[in-house]
Design brief:
By secondary structure, the chain is mainly beta. The chain is built from three helices and 35 strands. It has helices at 5-17, 66-69, 96-99, and strands at residues 76-78, 81-83, 102-104, 107-108, 122-126, 142-146, 155-163, 168-177, 182-194, 200-215, 218-233, 236-240, 261-278, 281-305, 310-318, 321-338, 341-358, 362-370, 388-405, 409-425, 431-450, 453-464, 483-495, 501-516, 522-540, 545-559, 578-586, 594-603, 606-607, 615-616, 619-632, 635-644, 652-654, 659-662, 667-675. It has a 22-stranded antiparallel beta barrel. A six-stranded mixed β-sheet has the order 2-1-5-6-3-4. A hairpin with a 2-residue loop joins strand 3 (102-104) and strand 4 (107-108). The longest helix is centred in the first third of the chain and has 13 residues, at 5-17.
Length: 676
């Protein structure tokens, strides 16, 4: 099923017209504590700060509802629910995770693996005006994980989920106060997954968090979170023989061999510190170690896929892989109040040290295959070669300023000096060295035009990571060099009512363009500029109906001087010009405890090859769900049911230039959660 934008507009209008008014509902209250907020401005000061983090706390998971708890449509995660036009892997056409623009409670974090939902059950994408209040923003936007901090009251939550494909998931979390100054947060999870193509991924994990207040104004929060993948089948990727869109790919078929799988261990450990040194002085610090070990990792490919659904199978097997990064930030903030003006000065030091062991792979050619027939080739012996190592070290010092003037506006500016060093040992011997030193800057201002209208504009440059070469590249798993990036943006926020906010903006981001060259190496091909317009409207339209709607319209362009004619197109691989998403949650007044929700997501065609000769067609996906809140043994409980991809739309998931996989089909799923 595909839909044009006018058709989508009719669907949205119908959803709004069908919503009746009703009584207001209570808002959930978190049981986990949150970071100490900065002192507030007078009550009549217009709020320019980022939207508050969504509620997703131990003891209140039955109240999780992304539509009602998201401040805008730019991307939020609340518990198991993800909403918005952006996500961790795609903001304004780029990946903030790959770029290294990640925060935990606002502090710098370099994740080898993102935090599990045992550590963070909320995620907020900060772009445009919502990035104000986050010192030292980044061109690709920020992914801010809200940390789960054990509170002062005992609480617990348990969840059991299942879907029609056979996946079963169980989660449990608890807050255990030990004394007035010390409390523990515990969490555990187990998952047996049957994926869209019958691949399996079984895992279990646990988390321990401690919150200790050894002195007034001082909080120490050590934590450790482990996830062990006992079985991880590797999904099949299809590469066409020439530049054409492949035939529709099979669903619910395990395209083996059965031995194409692996296992591994993910870990995030660290320490957060908050210290209110004096009424106008605050010190925040965090140090984190993020790591991933893969005992065996494979890439499962069908290459030279023909229109008659035949091709040849290749499996690339890696020996044991290790990736680890230590990162952190120390930030001292001085606040100065001067009548109607408030000033905050930030001194910060950030650093990271990362090392990777990769390469040494064995490439197995398993012969001709037909994609409708599962492969049954027996497991051969693997012959690994010596591995490569890369080492990255970066240290950044900065000074930032934030100023607010009652009734006038806000100004944020920063300067950072960063020193970057990268070393890669080469297969034939020797070392490839990359050094960079750069002065980074950011400046953003917001002005109160009226009590309801705020306009803003800003610019920021950065030194960002460019990710890792994909599995279908000859330099697969190689960490790519850091790149210089730039962004300018501007926009407005209009308070339509006290609770409904409209945010709109324009932006221009410039970066080097990485993709497959003529030899199959993932490398710099030129520069890419993403210019676009984004918009969001969110809030309760009535006492019973809340909506979150947004869209982004992109005009990406690649510049590759000197490239062979027709080799590199004007659009980057993966470019999607239009994304529009509408989500609504309705609580009927005649059925207390029940609510119904829908999500309609439209995306235009997606550029699939470097030459731009192939594009994945546009599509619209509709999800439909419902909730029932009830009491179980005197405790708040929730039954959640949902059908994703309601109309069973078929299509392709782009996994690299000219590489495809099937998108998930219709899936019915449900979970029950209880708070105690």
């Amino acid at each position: 099923m595909t839909a044009r934008l006018p058709d989508l507009a009719l669907l949205l209008a119908a959803a709004l017209l069908l919503a009746p008014p009703a009584a207001a509902s209570a808002q959930p209250q978190p049981n986990d504590s949150t970071p100490p907020p900065p002192p507030m401005l007078p009550a009549d000061e217009p709020d320019l700060s980022p939207p508050a983090a969504p509620v997703a706390a131990t003891g209140s998971r039955s109240d999780e509802n992304a539509v009602r708890q998201s401040g805008d449509a730019f991307g939020s995660t609340v518990g198991r629910e993800v909403i918005g036009i952006y996500n961790q892997m795609n903001v304004r056409g780029f990946s903030p995770i790959a770029a290294g623009n990640v925060r935990i409670d606002g502090l710098y974090f370099d994740p080898v693996v993102p935090p599990s939902t045992r550590i963070s059950r909320t995620t907020t994408i900060r772009v445009g005006l919502s990035a104000l209040g986050s010192p030292f923003p980044a061109p690709t936007g920020l992914v801010d994980f809200g940390f789960r901090r054990p509170g002062d009251e005992a609480a617990g939550s348990a969840l059991l989920a299942a879907d029609e494909w056979g996946t079963v998931n169980a989660e449990v979390d608890a807050v255990l106060p030990v004394s007035g100054q010390f409390s523990l947060g515990l969490g555990a999870s187990a998952r047996i997954e049957s994926g869209q193509d019958s691949t399996r991924e079984n895992s279990f994990g646990g988390t321990l968090i401690a919150r200790w207040n050894p002195a007034p104004g001082l909080t120490l929060i050590p934590f450790a979170s482990l996830l062990h993948q006992t079985l991880d089948d590797h999904r099949l990727t299809f590469q066409t023989a020439t530049e054409f869109l492949p035939p529709l790919l099979p669903r619910r078929q395990r395209f083996g061999p059965d031995w194409v799988n692996g296992s591994g261990l993910d870990a995030n450990i660290g320490l957060l510190t908050d210290w209110q040194i004096a009424p106008q002085w605050q010190l925040r610090a965090g140090i984190f170690r993020s790591s991933r070990v893969r005992d065996r990792q494979m890439t499962n490919l069908v290459r030279n896929l023909q229109p008659d659904r035949t091709g040849s199978q290749r499996v690339i097997v890696d020996p044991r892989l290790n990736f680890a990064a230590v990162s952190g930030e120390v930030r001292l903030t001085r606040q100065i109040d001067e009548g109607p003006r408030r000033h905050q000065i930030h001194l910060a030091m950030r650093g990271r040290s990362g090392d990777r062991r990769f390469g040494g792979s064995d490439t197995l050619e398993l012969g001709p295959v037909q994609i409708d027939t599962p492969s049954r080739v027996p497991e051969p012996a693997f012959r690994f070669t010596s591995q490569q190592f890369d080492d990255v070290k970066q240290i950044t010092g900065g000074i930032g300023y934030e100023g607010r003037w009652l009734g006038v506006g806000e100004l944020a500016a920063g300067l950072q000096w960063t020193d970057y060093k990268k070393r890669i040992d080469l297969p034939g011997g020797g070392v490839q060295a990359t050094d960079d030193r750069l002065l980074l800057y950011n400046i953003t201002f917001a002005a109160n035009i009226t009590p309801a209208l705020v306009v803003y504009a800003g610019t920021v440059n950065g030194l960002e990571e460019s990710g890792v070469a994909p599995g279908n590249a000859i330099n697969r798993n190689e960490a790519l060099p850091a790149i210089r990036t730039r962004q300018i943006d501007a926009g407005l926020r209009l308070a339509i009512t006290d609770q409904i906010k409209l945010v709109a903006g324009v932006f221009d981001i410039t970066k080097p363009y990485f993709n497959l060259d003529a030899n199959g190496r993932f490398d710099v091909l030129g520069d890419v500029s993403n210019r676009g317009v984004e918009a969001s409207i969110a809030g309760p339209l009535t006492h019973t109906l809340s909506v979150v709607a947004g869209g982004v319209w992109l005009w990406p362009r690649v510049s590759a001087p000197g490239a062979a004619p027709g080799r590199i197109g004007e659009r980057p691989v993966g470019a999607i010009s239009q994304r529009v998403e509408f989500s609504a949650d309705w609580r009927p007044p005649f059925a207390p405890g029940f609510s119904f929700d829908t999500r309609i997501a439209y995306r235009s065609s997606e550029t699939a090859t470097v030459s731009n000769s192939v594009a994945i067609p546009a599509r619209t996906i509709v999800d439909l769900g419902g909730r029932y809140r009830f009491k179980l043994a005197g405790n708040n409980a929730l039954l959640r049911v949902q059908v994703t991809n309601l109309f069973d739309v078929e299509g392709y998931d782009l996994r690299g230039a000219g590489a495809y996989g099937p998108i998930p089909g219709r899936l019915a799923q449900a979970y029950v959660t209880i708070d105690f």
